[in-house]
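To: structure desk
From: M.T.
Subject: fold request, one chain
Message: Could you run this one when you get a chance? Sequence is below, nothing fancy, just the single chain.
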Amino acid sequence: MLPRVRSPLAIRDLLGAALERENDDASSVERLEHAFAARFGFPHGVLFRYARSGLHALLSIIGWRDQEILSPAYCCGEVAYAITASGNRVRFVDSAVDHFLPGVLEWRSAATQRSAAAIVTPLFGYPVAKEAEAAVRTVSPNVFVIYDEAQSYGAADADGLQSRDADAAIFSLGLGKMITGLGGGMVLVRDVALQRQLKDYRDRLFAHPSPARTGYSIMAGVGAWAAFREPMVSMIDRFAATRTLAKPDIRYRTSVADPKLPDDGDVLMPPYQARVGLRQLERLGAILRARRAIGGYYERRLREEGLLSFPYSHPPTWPRYPLPVEDRAGVIAHFRRRQVQVSDFLDYSCPELPSYRQQAAGAFPHAALWARSMINLPIWHGIDEVRAERVVSTLARLRDRGDRAVRWPTVS
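Reply: Done. Structure tokens follow.
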């Protein structure tokens, strides 16, 4: 029997964090920084309001200007915007022909001796090819390797955590991530001098949060707690289907000419939110086990039905379950008519975003393919085996009637 996934965001987290007093020995922020670093094998951590703020700060304090930063073309656009906002240049890496992650060939082709940093992203928790990381270091001996684990908490392979050789790693604690601090981003680094510079940069330039922000965080947390449960999950899905709720889209949130951080990107994380994050981190192991169980169920059933899925060398963590189809809109419409939840996710390739379209659009065909074809099978908190089976059987019936919509897409 598939284990039931409980929401990682619990009322006891929200109320307990609100009632807890600050520790005299170490602040909540410092305790979260230490706990994160220990959990993911780094000696140091620095907490920011957003993960993108942390990336921007990291690139800024290193002192790079107009340097080449490697980043996957198919990933969250906020990464590219943070690079550009720091005064550096993004060099995109296309996805592989058979996988949304770049392979060894793609990384080796993109890397140059001028590459100052490489942002490696085990997206959706799928392990990257460690050989690709080695290939980049061969081409660019002084490259600074950053793991973007905003959507891949705990990505691992047979030798352990994949970020074990990285110079830095970045995690997001935003709502909807594997665990949450009702916002927040953690930067982990190995070099103590770099950690001190990061903290000094943050503490000098970032504003202290107002009491109203903490109150807003508590209300937002309660709203998120309700939204992640039935009947709200289904209600939100139906609203989204009719476009009653506006769909946030990064392509229209950022200026074409001037990518920048959010207006509150230079505000310190409230201690309350750090305490929520600490409580969440304590349950990460159980959350990862449950996610892998659901993802593994999809893998087994899709394989039994003769439907393809993305290969992997080690079980992903599956904060999302990605599946490419030839006609995404048609498949989603078919599912919604049968009241089965699926959705799209990350429906763009970064070179197609306004800031990069002029010089990069069309040059990354495989990233564009996955961007327009990917659906997200429901892996939300509370899903059970009955619901998961409905998803697989709906896909199989659509395939059995000869509909091309569920076919594996290819570059035209």
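Reply (cont.): The first strand starts at residue 44 and ends at 48. Let me know if you need anything else for the meeting.
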